[in-house]
Amino acid sequence: MDPMGNSSEVFGSALLLDDSKGNNMSQPQDTKPSYTTATTTYRSHIWKNAYKFLHFLIIFGFIGIILAIPVIVIGNKDIVKKEDALDDDQFFAQRSEKTVYYIFMWLLVTWICFAVAYVFASALPYIFRLVARYVNPAHMRYWRIVRTLRHPICIFVTICCSYIAYIITVWMDRLELAIIYDLPEGEVGWVDLIDDFLEQGTLWAGFYFVWKIVMLYITIHFHSRSDHNKVAHSKDMHNALTALYEASIYLYPVGTPEFTEEDMMISNATMAGHGEHRIRATRYLARLGVDLYGITSFFGNFLSSDPKSHWLRPSSNYATVERTIANPKSAAALARRIWMSMVSVGKTTLTAQDIAEVLGPFRKEEAEGYFKVLDEAEIGDLKLEEMEWTVAEAGRIRQNIYKSMHNADHCINTFDWVMLAALAAIMVYFILIFWVPSLKSIQETVKFLGFGLTFAVGRTIHHFLAGCIFILFDHPYDIGDRVELWSGQQKQSVSLVVVRTSLLYTVFKRVDNWMELQAGNEWLQQCRIENVTRSGSNRQAVSFNIDVKTSFKDLQFLKSELEAFLKHPDNKRDYLPNLALAIVGLGEMNMLEMRCIVAHRSNWSNEPLRAARSMKFMCALVAITRQIPLNRPDPGTIGRDFNPAHYVMMTPDEAKRNVEDVKQRAAADRWDFQGSSNSNDEPAIDLRGVSRDGGLSDDEIIRRVMQEAERKKAETGKKKAEELAARQALGKLPPVPRIGPPPRVTGGSPPPNVGSTSGFNQAGGQASGGLRNVPHYRG
């Protein structure tokens, strides 16, 4: 509250981070607006475009002048016939001049057409975007497709214009050429030869242009089948980590004692699967005064004057995050640095409010967006282990995207070059048939030979085409996806992780034994493939059979206990609170076929995490079924292996007493058992079956019976405690792989020989989560 009674934000002593974002009040009103593009100022943008224009004029103008010199010098002189020439040397000189004139005239017109086609193909995407803005704005996004076709358009238009220019400048003047060569009209060999080659080249350029359109459609279709949500989420995650890392080093600069180990691992990250704990060579060169990052950044300043640009700036925050998340260990170090610098002292979870306090009041929406990207499970807060898992998984997904792009480009380029080679071979065949008369005599033989080769290599061709259709059009998976493969001969699926794709085969890794499996795409096309990674949050279904006499009260208790387990604070980070429990069948009227479905909060592509969560839920289900308890189907049939029959001799009173004991024990094991009101948790004793042999007094007998009951009670409690500890151990989530410093402790006394701050604990004793002491503002 200010002195006037109005509510206002109270700022801390630290300055706001990056006032240029979301803070319009921090800019003076009299300053001129700074027009910027993605990487530089508006003036530099104009200069770059002007440089491209000058570059175009210099290259095309220089070559055009060279081609125009013979045309201008020779000119269109009158042709002198051979009989009118003074001598043969004059006639041959005229022939040479006219030949050079016609050829250079044709080349000059072709070059001008090429320049016009280049300008037209370069400007067509932007013209399309401008027209679509007013005609149909929904089609503006297709301008990139037109931009991709600029080279095929330029080649096709240039070859067509060259053919037309040759017809106009040379072929239509073949009568004059016949005069200067002193030959009959139509018998100038090189004129018809070039004309035929240009005709065939124009046809080939047309096929090439059409094929490039088809390849563009295939490429668009292939990438449209990719998981765009995964790519967009990876970009958002990278931007969020970059912004939060900037805020972290703003609060705790690199080299702060609290983050010495983390900064070492982050600075030594090399986008490789190892080496974070080793000192890089650049560190030693820097000690000698050779700063490679500084030298590279010097050249990066020529590309952009914007300090936020990451082009040729390997020490920028963008590049640092890119290198760090490539390896799980350095990614975990980055996650620890961000989490501990954002979370205030005394808290053990990261929330959107913590990020907003660091970024400042004018970037609350931005802070909420960053936290939403990090909180994939929508829990509302993040523990340190969850932050490490999230960042490590984000790095793995980003590396898989890069590998998928590389494999996709390899497959598409291979298919493109194979089809272009086939098209070129067909065109060469027709050209040879047309120009080599001897081939016409063996044309029928070549046809039969082609048909024979088709049958011989038909299986290989079918294998190649089936792989092309499977990879480029079906596109059932990407690199790093986990899939369930069902073949027609097997009734059980195989869990696989995609390692590498090709037009002919795909390499997988089995989840169960982690062995590599290579399968042909032709065979995979006949299998059913379930992509687990693309399916989002997955569900787990458990089926079991129970006794048909089970009461509905027990079923209701089973459902309520499972729902309570899912909604427990310790489990809300692993499962969604939605539970489906249903009776799906009755068998032969002797059992209840039950099915329980629970949804995990994350995807099953992470096998250790999936197995741990599945084990945790199954242990809870087993514990609840034992607590009720639920009986197996048909429990009363005598003679079964689970209910054997045996005979003993006893009196009617003993038999009656044993039956009552069995009923009492069964009732005591039920979840709804209510003991006597005056028991006060004392062990129940029964003196009816106690033998009085030995002359013991009643007090001694009661004392011994009570000791035995206390012993049994203690053993039962110990077994329950051991069962609970084993259940918790089975359901424990796996940790993120680490290297370098030991894990930070969350309680107890700080380790010896440390500074004022060591991990989660400040020296002095009180356990705390983060390290941030003063927020940037308080609401």
User: Using DSSP, what is the number of strands?
Assistant: 12
- How far apart lie the N and C ends? 10 Å
Number of helices: 23
**Unreliable spans:** 1-40, 273-279, 298-307, 736-768, 775-779
Query: Helices and strands: which structural class?
Result: alpha+beta
GO molecular function, one term: calcium channel activity
Pfam families: Msy1 (PF25886)
Keywords: Membrane, Transmembrane, Transmembrane helix
Protein name: Mechanosensitive ion channel
Features:
779 residues, three-stranded antiparallel sheet, 23 helices, 12 strands, disordered C terminus, transmembrane
Structural commentary:
The structure is a single chain. Helices cover 54% and strands 8% of the residues. The protein has 779 residues and is α+β, with helices and mostly antiparallel strands. The strands form four sheets. Strands 5-4-3-2-6 form a five-stranded antiparallel sheet. It has a three-stranded antiparallel sheet with strand order 7-9-8. The protein is elongated and about 155 Å long. One of its GO terms (biological process) is intracellular calcium ion homeostasis.
Show the helix and strand layout:
Layout: E1 10-11, H1 42-74, H2 88-135, H3 143-148, H4 150-169, H5 174-180, H6 189-224, H7 228-251, H8 260-267, H9 281-287, H10 292-303, H11 317-324, H12 328-342, H13 352-359, H14 364-374, H15 384-435, H16 437-441, H17 443-456, H18 458-474, E2 482-486, E3 494-501, E4 505-510, E5 516-520, H19 521-524, E6 528-531, E7 539-547, H20 552-567, E8 575-585, E9 591-600, H21 607-627, H22 652-668, H23 698-730, E10 757-758, E11 761-762, E12 777-778
Antiparallel strand pairs: 1-12, 2-3, 2-6, 3-4, 4-5, 7-9, 8-9, 10-11
